[in-house]
Amino acid sequence: MITLKLWARLARATGPRATDVLSAIAFAFATAALLAVLGGVNAFRMRLEEGRVDPLDGQLVLTLSFVAAALLLPAVWTLAQAAVRLAIARRDDRLAALRLAGATRGQVSAMAVLDAVAQALVGVVVGAMLALAVTPGIARIEFQGLPFTVAELLPPAWVWLAAAGAVLLTALGAALASLRRVHVTPLGVAQRVSPKRLSLWRILGFAIAAGAYVAVVVLDLVPAELSVSIALISVVVLAYSLIGPLMIQGIAWLVAKDARSPATLLAARRVIDDPRGAFNIVGAMSVAVMAGGFASLAPAAAAPGDALAVDMATGAALTIAIAGVLGAVLAGIAQSAKVLDQRREHQAMHRMGVELPVMRAALVRQVALPLVVGVGGAAAVALLLILPSFMLWWSSAGSVITWALMAVGAVAVTLGATAAALPLVKRVATETAAA
């Protein structure tokens, strides 16, 4: 009860801040994306149960919708983590002051968690309204030869409540995870825990998944049904998250070694120090781009006029689009959180004469480097794995061009969203004291 009163008084004293609004926006987009995906799954389920589609094709499309949902869930989790990190970053000094005044670590941690959950609750409400607003637009898309209806895309009330609960639980889990890495102490704002080094076993894990795909799907050494092939493709796509951070760290090391400008060197060194965090920003988009590469093969491999192949390509494009929006929001939120986390570093660099344009350029390149490596690597791996069917794939120019344009568009939107964090650089670097 005392903790709740302290939190309420702190909230009234400080009032809503820009970082609180950004955190709520992040939770809103995460909620809206989750509800949109669940709405699509519900529509495919209803069509199958009501017998409006072929049972075999309907079951396959429903399975693929679950796969798409699974590919987007990590983005929702990462977005929630970034929102929580942004919320906690602006409270560190105040929480440390409370510790000096006699508050326990448990009370301080509870107040930080309450901040995150309160912002998540606001985000859930706004996200639900946003999902309702975009549903009529989504209803214009055709799947299985039928246009969606608004009623199909609105799942039962319990699904909405479950989605809201999932986002709130995600916020709670992300807050607790953040507090394990950032412990507020009485005599210092935060005690940071260095991230663990990446293990080379990640390469072996991806190689096993890719090898199984080649043996079963490409070489047909082991007879398997279509559902098994789809499962193996999903495993390969998700396994990319194992080697993605390693690739980003390796390329960043090469860039740092030959860097010709302070901004490039600074950005590369930051990526090397935290390759997991760098990949988390672009991971969902990279996975979606890889899945889209596999799905773009479907129209070429199918018989002329096969609606299922068209649906797969359309679904892949939608997945990339949703991942691109989440990735753009995540980039803006995550980079804002990084600027606030590193405010003392920015202040020190500014006092030593580092110009603001250099710090801003480093911030943009800190996103651009993992973005190009992560998404480009995902596209390259997808092309490599479908190489035996390359000529067949290339014969379906429409799906190939759509896939490429969606990937490039997602990258461009993400880079544009990074600009949201640039004004914070001057504000933080020129502060006379940590905010």
What does this structure look like?
This protein is mainly α and 435 residues long. The protein contains 17 helices and four strands. The protein has two domains: 193 residues, no CATH class; 241 residues, no CATH class. A hairpin with a 2-residue loop joins strand 3 and strand 4. Helix 10 packs antiparallel against helix 16 and helix 14 packs antiparallel against helix 17. The longest helix has 35 residues. The radius of gyration is 23 Å and the shape is globular. About 1% of the residues have low confidence.
Residue ranges: pLDDT <50 for 5 or more in a row?
Answer: 186-190
State the strand order across the main sheet. Answer: 1-2
Q: How do the SSEs run, as a string of H and E?
A: HHHHHEEHEEHHHHHHHHHHH
What count of domains describes the coordinates? 2
Q: What's the alpha carbon Rg, rounded to whole Å?
A: 23 Å
- Helix proportion range: over 70%
Euclidean distance between termini CA atoms: 28 Å
Instruction: Give the biggest beta sheet.
Output: 2 strands, antiparallel
Shape: globular
Number of beta-strand segments: 4
Structural class: mainly alpha
Please give the count of helices.
Answer: 17
Q: Mean pLDDT, nearest integer?
A: 79
Strand content: under 5%
